[in-house]
Amino acid sequence: MNENLFASFIAPTILGLPAAVLIILFPPLLIPTSKYLINNRLITTQQWLIKLTSKQMMAMHNTKGRTWSLMLVSLIIFIATTNLLGLLPHSFTPTTQLSMNLAMAIPLWAGAVIMGFRSKIKNALAHFLPQGTPTPLIPMLVIIETTSLLIQPMALAVRLTANITAGHLLMHLIGSATLAMSTINLPSTLIIFTILILLTILEIAVALIQAYVFTLLVSLYLHDNT
Amino acid sequence: MASVVGIFSHSSVSVPVKDKKLLEVKLGELPSWILMRDFSPSGIFGAFQRGYYRYYNKYINVKKGSISGITMVLACYVLFSYSFSYKHLKHERLRKYH
């Protein structure tokens, strides 16, 4: 049972070649582009959603921060579609792999920080010491603030991985519990099945929320540094 | 499948027909017809592009496209992932002895 539980998180391979690349490349097929003003229903819906989220997300940035808008909007679309596709049965979710989330988090965070250090070095260094701290506490607080800065990319990546992985694992476990109880005791099967339905709704929400949180935090780091 | 070359994103593009269509090829000529196909990387990419636009123009790029245009794609994705994970799933069959 232990081997089966984590088997869905193994990156799929065809004869040793990573098929995970193909699976990561699948979401763009669902988001077509168009060169016309009036499009079919799919493109219209997607464009409306993207306009809604991008306006909301980029409202707080200044002109320099808005140069990142393409990156952030594509990030939230990618994470949201990948997480939602992972809720389909038997599918592989690339965002459960820590390697991929680290690959997304570290360059974005590093880009924001380095941009802050290059342009406004005094403002960037001022983040390390909050205002109004008593003088004896200053060395310790600088260390703490440095640690909290350096841990941001790790936290971004691990947060996304852990949330999605935990949700998928819970669904597997409760699903197999439902199957096992169906032969033993029918009313408790119905209770467990209701729990499964609630969990699925939660997972849909989590998929979207995690995308949002990831992108929001990256944009916050950007805001600090522009 | 029509033997066309070139980008085929909408139906008003005129493309030269390279060879006979598959349904017109006689059974004895089938191996030579298969060998005449373009198997270079750009040929394979062109085949995927034609297939994508064929599906897209038939089901999604229409005036009243329904949800089935995209759910068919998702159903194929589920079947594809199932075939990948069959190797692990076959141990979970309901048998007395595994």
Keywords:
heterodimer, A: 226 residues, mainly alpha, 9 helices, 2 strands, globular, B: 98 residues, 4 helices, 49% helix
Give a description of the structure.
The complex is a heterodimer of chains A (226) and B (98). Chain A has 226 residues and is mainly alpha-helical. Chain A has one domain. Chain A has 9 helices and 2 strands, in the order H-E-E-H-H-H-H-H-H-H-H. Chain A has helices at 2-5, 20-24, 41-58, 69-85, 98-119, 121-126, 138-150, 152-181, 186-224; strands spanning 13-14, 17-18. In chain A, a hairpin with a 2-residue loop joins strand 1 (13-14) and strand 2 (17-18). Chain B is mainly alpha-helical and 98 residues long. Chain B is flat. Mean pLDDT of chain B is 74; it is low at 1-5 and 14-18. At the A-B interface, loops of A face helix 2 and helix 3 of B. Chain B: It is a single-pass membrane protein. Chain B: Belongs to the ATPase F chain family. Chain B: InterPro entries: F1F0-ATPsyn_F_prd.
